Amino acid sequence: MKKETLFAINTIYRQPIPVHGLIFGSGEKSLAIVGSLRGNEVQQLYICSQIVKLLSRYEADGLIAPGKQIMVIPCVNAFSMNVGKRFWAADNTDINRMFPGYSKGETTQRIAASLFEHLKGHVFGIQLSSFYIPGNFVPHVRILDTGFHDLDLCDFFGLPYVMVSKPMPVDTGTLNYNWQVFDTKAFSIYSKETKNVHIDSAIQAIEATFQFMQSQGIIRSASPTEEGSYYPFHPVRFKEEDLVNVLSQRGGIFLHRSQVGDEVKTGALLAETLDPYGGNVIERMVAPCDGRIFFNHNSNLIGGHEVSCRIIPDNRASIA
Amino acid sequence: MIKKVASAELAVGEALVIKKNRIEPLGGAGENAKRVCVVTGTHGDELEGQYVAWRLADALHKNIQDLHGIVDIYPALNPLGINSIFRGMPLSDLDLNRIFPGSENGPMAEYLASEMIKDMSGAAACVDIHASNIFLRELPQIRINETVAQGLMPLARRMNMPLVWIHASATVLESTLAHALNSIGTPTLVVEMGVGMRITKEYGEQLVEGLFSLMSYLGIWSRKIAPTIPPIVSSDWQVAFINADHSGIFICEAQHMSTVQEGQRLGFIADPLSGRVMEKINSPVTGLLFTLREYPVVYEGSLLARILHSGSSGGGDGTENWMEACL
User: Which of A226, B32, B60, B196 is most open to solvent, judged by the fewest CB atoms within 10 Å of its CB?
Assistant: First the structure.
């Protein structure tokens, strides 16, 4: 493993903050993995740290494929992480809205530009991402429908769900979108948590990344008996627009009565909201359709008109 | 009359309510009365519009006999943000001006955005007032996307603002209030002026005069108005961007809204720990210093100044990104 300082961020009264790339193997820029772009993405940092640990072993055992290079960037935003902020702590801008960046622009535009210089040109790109609404997800692969995307490759992660999203205007500044525009086959992996480490879903994300690397010939299997056995999995594919939002009407104390990943039937109890002063149930949220719970609001307070839950409906259009 | 535009219950004993003040002629507005919407408070740290909202309502009430249409004043699209000194939506840290036109079935912020659009839709004109953020001081200006410039320029010229900035179209700006309204045929101007977290009274007065001028142009205000200033239109000029190349403390040595000469000292970046000057900042062109750094702490890349000029140096290469950061 080579540890390279890709660039450093200099600020007044703090030590220079380096952005490190951990490089395994040599040759073709096969894969780049990016962890936390935001200061609260602790789960994403953890996942990357474990990927680095495992890849070090793979490299020591000669299991990185000849002519293939992998770069892992565990953390781009230590500046914010170390002071407990989600976005760039100086001006609250989001690095993941600044790609492809602008080297003569504002600070986060420059960071995005510096980072993107190192990320461009990889065959594959994986970003460990988080969502703006606080909540828990079923671990899944997300791909933006840019016209450059390769949906079938998502199957090789072995995760149970693949979500295809139509890019919104704000998505045009994301790493994933710009990677695709610049010819990298890009994927986002969403784990269950963001601010806290959730070991089980982290292991799922790590295994998915290694399965993908093996399926594309970037690494070889640690177990000789598994060599060549990585056939595409058949995940549930769906479009983001097909998700059914279960909205709250009332504000109060929010209690789940179901878990992400649960299969639910129409009318099944999903969650309840309690009167914060009296303790009585003031709203019961039930499944409006048969399906599987994809996302759950994870705060114990909720306002009216919030997404308490998102369901992958059984009855949806299939996508090829 | 104070009216509710949209609301959602919050978790504990409170509702988030977005309100507007509807001001109508004494005898009531006719069925086909024209309507002007004056909107502000999208970003909780931008307060310049608060003075304008108050001053406009006050002036209208005192001269109501001269009003012949409807004026809807929305002083706080993001009331929780203003209330808690927070630029975005406090619960999600979401920029409200990135989620328009919103969605009736989306999360709270998107739902509220869709209700706002519904409420403002169909107005003869809408003016969306922003201050700069806390970092920069801006000369009062109208900002217009180039795709709708032709239709909006007649309105913009009446706003009593010294500068009309016609900026390039950027995909990311399609999620702003102004874009959402313009795309459904409600002419919407964006005003940018002053600095975040402060009120610059003279800019507010200038804009209020511009609003009366606009209302007069639309035929809903019959009181004599003061002559308005003809704006500089950016398409006839170029903009030089000056960004910091070092982190430190910016000590300003130039006057905002003054003409600066090529090579003139605008300020320097100091390192108070070592006592060194990290960078001297000189103007690359001769022109109007219309944007100036207000907040002294700077980082590599922080915008320090923008200068409107007629020459070819300096470029405007970052316009799209800059607009994204400011609007």
Answer: B32
